[in-house]
């Protein structure tokens, strides 16, 4: 998979984790990947009773600022897993 | 940027323009990204009738749909005007049967798979491959050995969770789960474990794969010519042939073409030009004409001169 250049300074995986935890306190977040492509797993009681679509939307909303703009640090989320708990 | 009311109304019309609308990169025949290709593959299995919108062709649609769907990426699948999700969600719903229910195809198979009965594919796993799989499998896990073959015949062999619909085949004492959508492309494959330039690896031979142009280097080609195993044709015009030519090459003029098309379709045929570009295109054309054993001389007569016969002038 091709690399996606970005002007973002700092650890992208940590930024993703921090952003999700900020919007969803108490969530357990795992992030792997690099070069613009990341896989994210989020476990949170907030997902309980939520459809997969709504759960995914919540996570995407939390990291929207990392995916916007000309050369965003997060180009794609290859796998997103959300679990209630 | 938030959408204005008229923009929102336009997108609403767009997502309702058909019962099923897939906003994707590329189109169904040439998907431009793996995630879009995956969703197309799934839809092709379930229903022939769906609309696609290539968001690469229109930046306004691309940015607008992200706003409209509150979703940052493509593909985006809409059914009956409702956003269903992206690749992850579509895959999950396909595996669970929810997607079939939503599309109204549960219990029947429409689209491509209706045309053929699901025939259990014949798979041969060599002893070396079987041993390698057993060594790689983790004890007590829920993971099974799975194979997916996309419609470009790219193989994905991996350990993973069983997916509903997988077809199980056994060979060499190993159980292989073949993704349902891949079954038609898997009949007759052999899986071996061999050493290659990057170390040991799995090698899959698939007789269903359409023939591709084979690349051959000058030294290997010379060996094949000397052994009488292959016929070589020069695709260049007379002006270039006058400057430099390979003795064993036949000119591809009217007589040369008649001769070429008189050969059996599985005859070993090599083409060359100056550097290998024009001859590759000609080789692709021969495949389309039904020839199955076609080689392109890598680097053309230029490489031949460097590596095999310096008496051939370079130009």
In short:
The complex is a heterodimer of chains A (85) and B (315). Chain A is an alpha+beta fold and 85 residues long. Chain A is 32% helix and 28% strand.
Structure commentary:
The complex is a heterodimer of chains A (85) and B (315). Chain A is 32% helix and 28% strand. The model of chain A has no long low-confidence stretch (mean pLDDT 90). Chain A has a three-stranded mixed sheet, covered by helices on one side. Chain A starts with 11 loop residues before the first helix and ends with a strand. Chain A is built from three helices and three strands; from the N terminus they run H-E-E-H-H-E. In chain A, strand 1 and strand 2 form a beta hairpin. With 85 residues, chain A is of the alpha+beta class. Chain B is an alpha/beta fold. Chain B folds into three domains: 5-113, Glutaredoxin, CATH 3.40.30.10; 123-205, Hypothetical Protein Aq_1857, Chain: A, CATH 2.60.300; 214-307, 3-Layer(aba) Sandwich (Oxidized Rhodanese, domain 1). Chain B is built from eleven helices and 16 strands. Chain B has helices at residues 5-15, 34-46, 59-69, 87-96, 98-103, 127-136, 218-226, 238-243, 254-262, 277-288, 300-307, and strands at 20-24, 51-54, 76-79, 82-85, 123-125, 143-149, 155-161, 167-171, 174-178, 189-196, 199-205, 214-216, 231-234, 249-251, 269-272, 294-297. In chain B, the strands form four sheets. Chain B has a five-stranded parallel sheet. In chain B, strands 2-1-3-4 form a four-stranded mixed sheet. A four-stranded mixed sheet of chain B has the order 7-6-9-8. In chain B, helix 10 links the parallel strand 15 (269-272) and strand 16. The longest helix of chain B has 13 residues, at 34-46. Chain B starts with a helix and ends in an 8-residue tail after the last helix. The chains are: A alpha+beta (85), B alpha/beta (315).
């Amino acid at each position: 998979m091709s690399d996606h250049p970005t002007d973002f300074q700092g650890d992208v995986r940590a930024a993703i984790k921090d952003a999700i935890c900020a919007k969803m306190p108490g969530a357990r977040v795992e992030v792997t990947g690099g070069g613009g492509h990341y896989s994210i797993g989020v476990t949170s009681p907030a997902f309980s009773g939520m459809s997969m679509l709504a759960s995914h939307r919540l996570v995407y909303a939390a990291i929207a600022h990392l995916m916007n703009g000309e050369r965003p640090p997060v180009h794609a989320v290859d796998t997103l897993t959300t679990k209630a708990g | 940027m938030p959408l204005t009311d008229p923009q929102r109304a336009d997108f609403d019309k767009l997502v309702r323009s058909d019962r099923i609308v897939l906003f994707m990169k590329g189109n169904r025949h040439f998907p431009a990204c793996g995630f879009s290709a995956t969703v197309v593959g799934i839809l092709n299995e379930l229903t022939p009738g769906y609309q696609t919108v290539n968001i690469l062709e229109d930046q306004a649609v691309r940015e607008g749909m992200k706003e409209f769907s509150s979703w940052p990426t493509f593909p985006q699948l809409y059914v009956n005007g409702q956003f269903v999700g992206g690749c992850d969600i579509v895959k999950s719903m396909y595996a669970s049967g929810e997607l079939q229910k939503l599309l109204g195809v549960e219990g029947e198979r429409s689209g491509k798979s209706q045309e053929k009965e699901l025939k259990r594919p014949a798979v041969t796993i060599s002893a070396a491959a079987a041993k390698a799989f057993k060594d790689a499998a983790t004890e007590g896990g829920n993971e099974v050995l799975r194979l997916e073959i996309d419609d470009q015949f790219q193989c994905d062999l991996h350990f993973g969770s069983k997916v509903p619909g997988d077809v199980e085949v056994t060979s060499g004492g190993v159980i292989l789960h073949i993704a349902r959508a891949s079954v038609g492309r898997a009949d007759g494959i052999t899986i071996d474990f061999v050493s290659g330039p990057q170390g040991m690896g799995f090698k899959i031979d698939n007789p269903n794969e359409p023939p591709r142009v084979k690349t051959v280097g000058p030294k290997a080609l010379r060996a094949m010519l000397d052994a009488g195993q292959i016929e070589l044709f020069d695709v260049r015009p007379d002006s270039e042939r006058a400057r430099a030519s390979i003795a064993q090459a036949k000119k591809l003029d009217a007589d040369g073409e008649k001769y070429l098309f008189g050969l059996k379709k599985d005859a070993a045929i090599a083409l060359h030009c100056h550097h290998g570009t024009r001859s590759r295109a000609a080789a692709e054309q021969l495949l389309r004409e039904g020839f199955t054993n076609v080689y392109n001389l890598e680097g053309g007569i230029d490489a031949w001169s460097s590596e095999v016969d310096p008496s051939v002038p370079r130009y």
